[in-house]
Amino acid sequence: MRRSLRRALGSALRWLGVKVCRRSALLLVLVWLASWLFLNGLVFVHRNMFSDFCTDDKSKEILQRVCDEYQQGVLSGDLCDDLCVAGRVEYKRCLYYENGKKVMAASWRGVPVVLKSKLENFSSYEALALLEYQDGAGGTGGEEELSPLDVVFYATLEIKNSLGLETGTNLTLPRLWGQRMKESERTYSRAELASLWALLQQEEYIFLRVLQDLTHHVAKILGSCGHFYAVEFLAAGHAWDQHIFSLEELSLSPTPSPTRGQDKTLTARDMVPRVALSFLEMVEHFENDFSHRLHLCDIKPENFAIRKDLTVVAIDVDMAFFEPKMRDILEQNCTSDNDCNFFDCISKCDRTKNRCGSKRQNSNLQVICEKIFRPWFSPTLLGAKAGLPLQVALQRAVQECAEIGEGRRAVRQQLRALLVELVQEDSGNPGDGQEHKMGRVHTALNF
Ligand SMILES: Nc1ncnc2c1ncn2[C@@H]1O[C@H](COP(=O)(O)OP(=O)(O)OP(=O)(O)O)[C@@H](O)[C@H]1O
Ligand SMILES: *[C@@H]1O[C@H](CO)[C@@H](O)[C@H](O)[C@H]1NC(C)=O
Ligand SMILES: *[C@@H]1O[C@H](CO)[C@@H](O)[C@H](O)[C@H]1NC(C)=O
Ligand SMILES: *[C@@H]1O[C@H](CO)[C@@H](O)[C@H](O)[C@H]1NC(C)=O
């Protein structure tokens, strides 16, 4: 772009040159050069100012504070000992740091993980009122412990509130927690409870926690220490690289892992239909397998990631809503359908009431077809293969899938059938072993 700008300016100068003398042309060039340098400098400074915060020093400082507080007995978690005492968590690099939200890559007992917290400081989270109350009642001193049922009660309220689920609907999680608590018959220290409370103030943690046992299309929570929780490290999609996720990212270390037999390097083209099938599976999960349908309202490549086994994982769940909350969000005053668009979730304007319908008109699959599949299966990306009958049929199916209309199920089934066929076609790669069990399960403070 810059080059074409320069060329345009050059020709403009040449044109001007007819009338204007050389010296002023030179002046013009100098002025232009100066402003170009100035603008670039500005961009450079700006970029550095913001990336400066996401430094290793800052990350280590933050982790050090977590460990200090762990040693003071302020916070705890199943990751703390490895992080602060045994040195089995190795910090790698900072991934994101803005408005206090901290995301870091690390390696925990050799497993690549991502450490996350919405706020950098433990003290920035609201304290658990229950603990203060107990302080006031002050029975047998500081180490007083709470009944698990109190915790379940608070946790349930917080979760339902956060996810916008009405009370009275069935939410499986707290019941499960309650059962496990009864079985284990143990009580919880205030450090554990304070930590749980800090985690429960992070919508993303709640979301992942609730869906952990229900689907493998969300990132696995592997552990936590205080307000930081560790999720599995995944290969995220990129805005600038529309068509595919890069699996190389999955190994944090630059040295390639020793190739086991099945670790055949899949080319991007082999991966696409497999990843697409996993997208379809995810869509079906989110639609049918929870007590409420789950809507994804911000669908773009960088909000999804894949595991080594090519399962698709939703990583940015800020814009994911269960049906009741979705209805709340969509019900707005309106004068036209345009007022009823909430990012990728749209409904219709009822002109008689001037109110948006509470029912979402498009679906997760429609948007995925439009924003992710269409570029993947476009003729430009398919290259020489684009003219083959299977590819043509696939392009048509994706196009149909992206449109809002009737016969959704038929379209979906056709799309799946075509993708399966495509996978089988290049089936030089047999059984993609679906077994990538992460060694241990995060026990959320051993509930
Ligand atoms: N499990 C993961 N594995 C690898 N990288 C991750 C993982 N989770 C997040 N990231 C990366 O960390 C960065 C920030 O993560 P995250 O999406 O949580 O931040 P965010 O600010 O909420 O995103 P957005 O601004 O899009 O809402 C992203 O660039 C993402 O690619
Ligand atoms: C976090 O705590 C440190 C040390 O107590 C402090 O310097 C910093 O300003 C705090 N950050 C925020 C965002 O509160
Ligand atoms: C909710 O739970 C109750 C009691 O366990 C059960 O009878 C009911 O069928 C459940 N409702 C739904 C919608 O799952
Ligand atoms: C929406 O419309 C109703 C009546 O039509 C009005 O009472 C209400 O204030 C409006 N809400 C907003 C947010 O404009």
Protein described:
The chain has 447 residues and is an alpha+beta fold. Mean pLDDT is 79; it is low at 137-143, 253-263, 429-441 and 443-447. Helix 6 (148-163) packs antiparallel against helix 7, helix 12 (364-376) packs antiparallel against helix 14 and helix 14 (389-402) runs antiparallel to helix 15. The protein has 15 helices and 14 strands. Helices cover 46% and strands 13% of the residues. The chain folds into two domains: 57-233, no CATH class; 236-251 and 268-425, Transferase(Phosphotransferase), domain 1 (Orthogonal Bundle). Strand 8 and strand 9 (312-314) form a beta hairpin. The strands form five sheets. The chain has a five-stranded antiparallel beta sheet, sandwiched between helices. A three-stranded antiparallel beta sheet has the order 6-8-9. Strands 7-10 form a two-stranded antiparallel ribbon. The protein is globular.
